[in-house]
Write a structure and sequence with these properties.
Layout lengths: L2 E5 L2 E3 L5 E8 L8 E6 L6 E6 L6 E3 L7 E6 L4 E6 L8 E7 L11 E5 L2
Parallel strand pairs: 2-10
Antiparallel strand pairs: 1-3, 3-8, 4-5, 4-9, 5-6, 7-8, 9-10
Length: 116
């Protein structure tokens, strides 16, 4: 079984924070770059953040720079994203995957809703 399982989403007010988690099964993440993606209703899925496999380099979509932080724990086969200062436009289903993403490994994602 090869899959990613996301968790940690929820409903928060603007300015709130959530810590998203992604557990990988069926393989180890050590040798792969990883990313978080999101898809809002009626919009295409977009990349949000990514982290390198060896040097730990991180990259962020411009709209989330300074607010989101991606991290990984290879020993636990986990990927995380701390999402701070959330805005209504961050509302989406969030997914983790390899980077570049592999279509067959999209999971169910975790819903993040930001509203007043």
């Amino acid at each position: 079984q090869l899959q990613f399982v996301e968790s940690g989403g929820g409903s928060v007010q603007p300015g709130g924070s959530l810590r998203l988690s992604c557990a990988a099964s069926g393989f180890t993440l050590d040798f792969y770059a990883l990313g978080w993606f999101r898809q809002a209703p009626g919009k295409e899925r977009e990349g949000v953040s990514c982290i390198g496999s060896s040097d730990g380099s991180t990259y962020y979509e411009d709209s989330v720079k300074g607010r989101f932080t991606i991290s990984r724990d290879n020993a636990k086969n986990m990927v995380y994203q701390q999402t701070n200062s959330l805005k209504p436009e961050d509302t989406a289903v969030y997914y983790c995957n390899f980077y570049p993403p592999a279509p067959r490994y999209w999971g169910q994602g975790t819903q993040v809703t930001v509203s007043s």
